[in-house]
Structures are given as structure tokens and as C-alpha cells.
Amino acid sequence: MTSSAPAHDAPLTSAAFRVVPVSTLDPAQTELAEAWQAVFIDSAIADMGDDHDAWSMDSRKAREQDADWENRYFAALDGTTVIASAELMLPMRDNPHLAMVDVVTRPEHRRRGVGSLLLAHLIREAAETGRTSLLAETTTRPNGTDAGEVFLRKNGFDLGQTLQRNDLDVAAYAGGENPTETPGYIIETSTDDTLDEWLEDRAVLQQRMSTDAPIGNLDISEETWDADRLRRLRDTTRRSNRRAIESVARHVDSGRLVAFSGLQIPANDPSLAYQQDTLVLREHRGHGLGAAVKAANMRALRAEFPQTRTVRTWNAEENGPMIRVNEALGYRTTALQREWQKRLT
């Protein structure tokens, strides 16, 4: 759903700042949107250096058009200068109690209250849509200081889950000898398309991802997936200017897909690829299918994207089996991502 920024046109003000809606799709707001996006990038660089994971402008535009989420963007202005940026993400197909929030402030403007002002605005917007649970995330180096922890705890958030951000040096990839076929299963791979003949089974797998993957103490319910939603996700990936590789495992006896794994590669900078979801149905675990679909993706990546130097993934700390698979492939932890939760009363 396209964010209806003009519908939220009553700025929240303090003595020094005012909050205004932002649209990345409105030509009249191009300058404002670029300044808003620059705050996300500059803040991420200040906290993590060039090794950050801030979304690109292409991805933010695609998210604003996503029919399965309503994404509302806001900027805090000091005069005419954008000094802080925020995003409110509202699931529209499931989890109607949930809202995700992201607030960043330029380093030179931190501790002036602007982040709290923006967060209060997001909380008000979320509450007006009936949301009762907020999620936020922070990223830090291993053994580093989490710049967002004090801010979130001060505003009533509790830690819900910790994930490892794990990176793979493609040149040193240790899985080249891993088989991409296992007895009783066939591995299939596609580039830039979740094949139409996969969609019915892939929807089942994607929905199971929301129930089978570890979620720690987070208040997240089962998602609803079908073929049409997967098609929309495919379109969002394309609008984000990302390429995609996906491999699935087909059970020979039943003919059904029972495992999948995906990669996304930014077209503008393919040096860093992002591992997406990986799932093996519980009833088909123990056959090496997780390693097999990942190995198939890596073979396709090395063949079609020789510029890619690093593959990045995130794994919940409690997800020991997947961490062991990734460690065997050569992944190493480069950061920690923490998921925070606040319940609205």
C-alpha cells in the first residue's frame, strides 16, 4: 500500500523541532526525501562505519509501494534542516497488533530530545491504528557499545531477541564440495524469479517460516502467505533494484517443495549479497537439505555474480542448527542485531 503521507499532515512540534511526513514517491518532495534518506545513511556510518546495512533509496521507494505493508516516513526538522528520520512499518495482511519503528538522529544532534520526539510521534500513529506492540532493532559490533540500547530502554523497550550478523568471504567459501543433491530430493535453482510452478508450495514454506523460525520473546504471530503475496514480494524485490537467486528442494516421492533458501544482490553494488530466509520443513530435516540449497545458491552466485565478495546473513542466537551450517560454510560473526519490544497500554 502506498503511504498516504498527506493524510498525516498535522506536524508534531516542540520548541525547537517539528515533525513532517515524507514521501519518497512524490516529485514535489524529492529534496526532502533525499535529505531524510541521508540521515539514515549518515547515522549508520557513524555507528558502524562503511560496513552498515542501511536501506537504499530504491528499497525505501519499493517499501512505500508495498501492498502488504503500510510504511509511513517522517522527518524532524530544525528550521529547514532534516536532523532526524523515522519509519513506521505496519503489517496489513497479518499481525494487526504489531508495528515496527525505526528512529535515527544525526550524531551532532543527538541528546537534544529529537529522537524522543520522533518516537512519540510514531507511537501515537501506531496507537491510532490499533497497534499494541512495537518492535525496534539496533546493531552493534561484537563486544561493542549499542548506541540505541539506552534510548530504547529509556522509552520502555525490552530486549526480545539477539541475532548474529554473519558474513561469508566468497573467495574463502568452504562449501564448494557440498553436494547439491541428496537421495530422495532434487535441488532446483532460479535467478530473478520465484518460478510460477513453485508458488503454491513456496507459500506454504514461507508461512511455515513465520512459525518454525526462532523468534525469542517477540510478540509475532503466524503470517498469511499465498501465491499472490509471493508475486508481490517478487515485484518489491525488483523495484528495490535487487537481483535474486533462490534454490528449493523437491521431495521426489511427493513432488512437493520441502526446503528453500534465497539470496538478494543489489544491482548497483553487487559486492555484498544478502542471505534471505532459509527453511527446511521439520518433517524433512536431517537430510542435509539446508546445506544443499545454500550450496546451490552459492554456485549460482559465483557463476552469475563474480563481483560479489561477501554474503551476509542473520541468525538468532538460539538457532544452533543453522549457525552450525553457516559456520561449516565459512560464515563468521561481524555484528550483533538486537530486537526490542514495547507493549502499548
From TrEMBL:
GO molecular function, one term: acyltransferase activity, transferring groups other than amino-acyl groups
Keyword hit for Transferase: yes
InterPro entries registered for this protein in UniProt: Acyl_CoA_acyltransferase, Bact_Acetyltransf, GNAT_dom
Source domain of life: Bacteria
Positions in coiled-coil regions: none
Signal peptide stretch: none
UniProtKB keywords: Acyltransferase, Transferase
Keyword Transferase: yes
Xref: CDD domains: NAT_SF (cd04301)
N-acetyltransferase domain residues: 23-179
PANTHER family the record matches: AMINOALKYLPHOSPHONATE N-ACETYLTRANSFERASE-RELATED-RELATED (PTHR43877)
Protein name, entry field: N-acetyltransferase domain-containing protein
Species of the source: Knoellia sinensis KCTC 19936
